[in-house]
UniProtKB/TrEMBL annotation:
GO BP annotation list: amino acid metabolic process
EC number: 2.6.1.-
Names of required cofactors: pyridoxal 5'-phosphate
Molecular-function GO terms, alphabetical: L-aspartate:2-oxoglutarate aminotransferase activity; pyridoxal phosphate binding
UniProt family annotation: Belongs to the class-I pyridoxal-phosphate-dependent aminotransferase family.
Subunit (UniProt): Homodimer.
Protein name: Aminotransferase
Keyword vocabulary terms for this entry: Aminotransferase, Pyridoxal phosphate, Transferase
Domain of life where this protein originates: Bacteria
Length: 400
């Protein structure tokens, strides 16, 4: 008798975690490896946030809390949505989970039935399709290639909607491309959704505060108020506040969905870490001025990497609007052979050979639904990025 659930046959392990693990193992063996796979800021959590966590410990705030968040954090989240997005929510419309991933998963588990379809623009964050599958739904991917800036068009969205569509998962700025939708582009998409009242919107705004140049962030329920009652707006403190390990994500939306998510969480993890919740209160309510400084650093690194990769043979690297990723195409390298004798017949083969021959760990594009590309996270030091780009250029130059 098979001891494992048949559900597991529908999903695969996270490729981004796998790449990070492989890079760490090679480093432990003494290899000189530059890891560009992890989507994690290299900044430390700000001191005021750490101080709030220490104060919570000293005050004995170490017990169970309400399943989906303490009142103080829910109010801070409501205040954030009003301040940053002009969206009005009450605490009863807010759910706090152990990272944005759990919040997304809870929402899908609470709403999907067999046969329900979820539209996912590709390139996509690796976990979206697998979470849909785990929840019993059917992911419907819409490929948005480099020629369209990795962004979905209104026609593509309209064509993908059927009577079985339950959700659209929307992510801007994007992981893995860093592409962001302008207000006009997003309004064109929401205009389509207005005409399909059975479709709900799951907006993953995790990279909201990491934006560059003249790009202005906006979110679906803000752009089109008619979608307010069928939009779940998801965010968290991991990326903007360098709190990945604290594991706090949150969402606001219709009370019926929030209540269903609470029920799921009550029978899985129960409440997120109490100390992390108090730290998140300070993150959202405290000073925000450091965000501008961090964005300036990320923008400088973005420019460094874009220039460095566009100087590589066979690589085309668009300039992203936000987040801390680039998603270059290697279409011109497919069919070549590396200096070490590896056949570059896919972006997965490219990434494997790059790691083995030059010690640079990147994530292959097939993991994100659009090939032949690869993702680089530039959330690391300038020196590491410069050296990585040098190695990538050398690797590409050796392909023939």
């Amino acid at each position: 008798m098979d001891q494992l659930s048949a559900t597991l046959t529908r999903v695969k392990p996270s490729p981004t975690i796998a790449v990070t693990t492989m890079a760490a193992e090679l480093k432990a063996q003494g290899r000189d490896v530059i890891g560009l796979g992890a989507g994690e800021p290299d900044f430390d959590t700000p001191d005021n946030i750490k101080a709030a966590a220490k104060a919570a410990i000293d005050a004995g705030k170490t017990k169970y809390t309400a399943v989906d968040g303490i009142p103080e954090l829910k109010q801070a989240i409501c205040d954030k949505f009003k301040r940053d997005n002009n969206l009005t929510y009450t605490p009863s419309q807010v759910s706090v989970g152990t990272g944005g991933k759990q919040v997304l998963y809870n929402a899908l588990m609470a709403t999907l039935n067999p046969g329900d379809e979820v539209i996912i623009p590709a390139p996509y964050w690796v976990s979206y399709p697998d979470m849909v599958l785990l929840a019993g739904g059917t992911p419907v991917t819409v490929e948005c290639g480099i020629e369209q800036g990795f962004k979905m068009s209104p026609r593509q969205l309209d064509d993908a909607i059927t009577d079985k569509t339950k959700w659209l998962i929307f992510n801007s700025p994007s992981n893995p491309t860093g592409a962001g939708y302008s207000r006009e582009e997003l309004k064109a998409l929401t205009d389509v959704l207005v005409h399909h009242p059975h479709v709900m919107v799951m907006s993953d705004d995790m990279y909201e505060h990491l934006r560059f140049g003249s790009f202005e962030f906006c979110t679906p329920a803000e752009v089109e108020p008619e979608l307010y009652d069928r939009t779940l707006t998801v965010n968290g403190v991991s990326k903007a506040y360098a709190m990945t390990g604290w594991r706090i994500g949150y969402a606001a939306g219709p009370e019926k969905i929030i209540g269903a998510m609470r029920k799921i969480q009550s029978q899985s993890t129960s409440n997120p870490c109490s100390i992390s919740q108090w730290a998140a209160v300070e993150a959202l309510n405290g000073p925000q001025d450091f965000l501008k400084e961090w964005c300036a650093v990320f923008e400088r690194r973005r420019d460094l990497v874009v220039e460095g990769l566009n100087g590589a043979k066979g690589v085309t690297c668009p300039v992203p609007d936000g987040a801390f990723y680039v998603y270059p195409s290697i279409a011109e390298l497919i069919g070549m052979v590396s200096a070490g004798g590896a056949a570059i017949d896919s972006d997965e083969a490219f990434a494997k050979a790059l790691l083995e021959e030059e010690g640079v760990a990147v994530v292959f594009g097939a993991a994100f639904g659009v090939s032949p590309c690869f993702r680089v996270s530039y959330a690391t030091s300038d020196a590491a990025l410069e050296e990585a780009c040098t190695r990538i250029r050398r690797f590409c130059a050796g392909c023939s």
